[in-house]
Write a structure and sequence with these properties.
Elements (H helix, E strand, L loop, with lengths): L27 H17 L5 H31 L12 H33 L3 E2 L7 H15 L6 E3 L13 E8 L6 E7 L8 E3 L5 E4 H7 L1 H4 L4 E12 L12 H12 L4 E7 L4 H11 L6 E4 L9 H4 L30 H6 L3 E5 L5 H13 L3 E8 L8 H10 L3 E6 L7 H13 L3 E3 L6 E2 L3 E8 L2 E9 L11 E8 L2 H15 L11 E3 L3 H17 L4 E7 L5 H12 L3 E6 L16 E6 L4 E2 L3 E6 L2 E7 L5 H5 L1 E7 L3 H16 L4 E4 L5 E3 L9 H13 L1
Parallel strand pairs: 1-6, 8-9, 11-12, 12-13, 14-25, 17-22, 19-20, 20-21
Antiparallel strand pairs: 2-4, 3-4, 3-7, 5-6, 7-8, 10-17, 11-15, 15-16, 16-17, 18-25, 19-23, 21-26, 23-24, 24-25, 26-27
Helix pairs in contact: 1-2, 1-3, 2-3, 11-12, 15-16, 18-19
Length: about 700
Amino acid sequence: MTSGSTTLGPEPGPPLGEFGRPETFFNRELSWLQFDDRVLELAEDPGTPLLERLKFLAIWSTNLDEFFMVRVAGLHDMVDAGLDSPGKDGLTPAGTIGRIREVTAAQQARATRCLRDEVLPALGERGLRVVHLHEVSAEDRDGLEEHFRRQVFPVLTPLAVGLGRPFPYISNLSLSLAVRVRDPETGQEMLARVKVPKEMLPRFMPLPGGCAFVPVEEVIAAQLGALFAGMEILEYSIFRVTRDADFTVGDEADDLLKAVETELRRRRFGEVVRLEVQAGMGEGMRRQLTAALDVEPGDVFEVDGFMDLGDLWDVYKVGGFTELRDPVWQPVTRARLKPEDDEQPDVMGAMREGDILVHHPYDSFSSSVQRLLEQAADDDDVLAIKLTVYRTSDDTPLVPTLVAASERGKQAVCMVELKARFDEQANVRWARKLEEAGVHVVYGLPTLKTHAKCVLIIRREGDGVRHYVHVGTGNYHPTTARLYTDFGLFTCDEAIGADVADMFNGLTGFSRQARYRRVLLAPDLLREGILREIAGTVEAHQEGRPARISMKMNSLVDGACIRALYEASQAGVRIDLNVRGICCLKPGVEGLSETIRVTSVVDRFLEHSRIYAFQRGEDWSVWIGSADLMPRNLDTRVELLAPVTDPSLRAELLDTLERSLADTTHAWDLQPDGDWTRRRPDGEPRSVQRELMARAAEQSA
């Protein structure tokens, strides 16, 4: 067992009697926390470059915020509704909440120790300091005081609580100071709240030279006398609120855009699911806060150090200190997409010669996906461009490209998923801009999220048209394309093109396709297709042919798929699963899953690609796409998997799978009892991401 491991749910029992007992299923929420645990282990690892350790602490913190906003909030809803029956893992919602409190409190303590005792002292020795205000020189304190008067004080709004002054609304994830003050003339005491305005001020204020930072809340705390003139400051403490931030748009929504905007406004007032307080906060102040915010004592977490470590990103982004970071990686252009001389790549021309596979961030997004859309927008023979947008960035070139295509008279269609969690506001903004520019914007169905990653280009050629298709595993987001590992298939396959065209017709019109030629589409056919592939592999094994299942995904939760994998294992099929995050399947259990191995890779790039591969004899059936094996993906989302039939492209996908399974530097193995054990090199260390960077650099040379 590793130092930070967490056992999930009940201990494994005897060999499987029937599927659905606690012995067969790990708790989903605790499995999510175990992914956070692996991120935290990288922050604790002395072998990780110092600024990357800081980055992993920030990632751990923001991951935990999302977990409380979505998953813990959902559990509270279940408890409030009286739904307290045990799940497949044997834990009730209330029992799960109790376990979550234990695990997250332990993780918070580890993160605090790691930052305070290891990372910050080591960074300070290298010339990059994050310090408390009392550690700052008198000269720098004078400078901070002057800065406070000029730029901080004007944007602060102290809000007192008392007669005629109700407790103020505390926004989600905001950092605040609770202050108890007394009027020296009357003796009256009052509680007040001062919000730390992180939207307008940097959380960590730079000192002269730009290589030392002080938390802004400490600067504000030192100047409370200026905010409460003439009052005695009796006590102050920092606190932070996390609210339920999930929402559902119902079937009855006639105008999806307006419905999402309404729900976004409601999100601000969601139930408080976590209250973080500074260690040492007085008991009276703590009671007053918990009562005002209607928080259960178990949902109050003490933080003995910096609160909201997600803001450490600001320190990570400081210039210089390259020796404290991972080596810079510059994505390369695939050989088939390399232009001659100084010309732009002819992506569509290359596609006509055969399918192309790209793997971000090893391969460039700009010279592949982005270039395809730009080329299509400029091509007079292109009649239509259609794409799905789930998450994108404010600086994305894709949206302006669609606008340009529309202005050139092409049919430009963008399926914008307004309900992409925590990107809703950005997608609403982009949707309005696209509509104003004349692009056909479609929002999909209220009860389904469109998560498929597809581009369809229809080009006039000869006396007909040709379909150019891109199917990806990740979002059309140029920033995350440099941070997430994702595959993309470029193809002119007629059947896939017709299928994707049918999918878009279903999303923009009013139709339900009963069958597709080549692709697997959720919510109607994808689970069925995966189960069929598993069953076919079992059949091949029973016939004495080589048979193996190898999968790479973000999460494995779906009960039907897990049961099928158990049955395949009981039949003797070798099953290798590379699951980055949540895994509810129990591997290596005698009589249940003895042939199943589960590994997780957590490294500098976020593993995000989905590959589903099934060996039957000498042949492999290989699929890539947007879907994880989770009920939400298979039942309540539009998802698409496409087959990869070109032998060389299939070989590359299988090679990536094998490298992922063989990693010995940033890989963990899931044990039958729920522990994740980090691998240690036995001989020459192997890293899938380093190997793929080296291969990409060699191929581009």
